[in-house]
Amino acid sequence: RVRGLRLRAFEQARNAEIDASIAIVAFHRDRNAEINASIAGVKAQRLKAFEQARNAEIDASIALVAFHRARNNLGVALKRRGRIDEAIEHYKMAIEVDPDFAEAHSNLGTVLQGLKRHDEALACFRRALQIKPDFVEVLNNLAWILATCEDAEIRDGAQAVRLAERACELTDYEFPAMLDTLGAAYAEAGQFDQAVQTAQNAFQLALASKNAVRAKNIQNRLELYKANRPYRESFNLETPTRK
C-alpha cells in the first residue's frame, strides 16, 4: 500500500512537471509572438517613415529640377529682351542649383562671349563639354572663339579645327554656320586652301537657305582667306549660330 501511495505521488508530481513545462512553452510562445508583433510594428513604422522620406526627397528633387530649368528659361527670355545682367544672374542661379546643367553653362557662355569676356566664356563652354561632350552649339561657339578672338593668347587654331570638325560631323556638314566656323578655324591654323573651300561650301548653303545676311558675311570672310588672312572678331562681322 505504501508503494502504491508513492507511485501515485510520483505520477502527480510528474503530471505537475509536465503541466509546468507546457505552461512555460506556452508562455514563451506567447512572448515570442508578442516580440514578433512588436518587431513587425517597428518595421512597419520604419518602412512608412522611409517611404515618406523617400517621397519627400523625390518631391524635392522634382522641385529643384523645375526651379533650375525655370531659372535658365527666364535667363533666355531676359537675354532676348536685352536685359543681359539679369540673364547672367539667372543662369548662375540655375548652375548653382545644378552644377551639371550643361545648357545653363552654354547659355551663360554665349552671353559672356557677346560681352567679349572670352576667358569666362571659354570656362563655361569647356564645362558644358565636360558634361555633354557632343553639345554641337558649344563645340561651334568654343571653336569660334579659339579661331577668331582678337586676343592672340586665347587663339588656338589646332584645337579650333578639332572642335569645328566635330560640330560639322555631328550636323552632317549641312549647316552653313558650322562650316563658317570650320573655315575660320582652318584659316587660323594656316590651312587657307581648306578655309577657302569650306567657306565656299558654307556660302552656297547660306544662299540655298535664303539667308542673305549670313551669305554676305561668309563671302567677306572668304575674301580674307583668299588673301591668306584669318578672320578676327574685331572686323565686326556676324558671329555664327546654328540656324
From TrEMBL:
InterPro entries: OGT, TPR-4, TPR-like_helical_dom_sf, TPR_rpt. SMART domains: TPR (SM00028). One of its GO terms (biological process) is protein O-linked glycosylation. It holds the Pfam family TPR_4. GO terms for molecular function: identical protein binding; protein O-acetylglucosaminyltransferase activity. This is Uncharacterized protein.
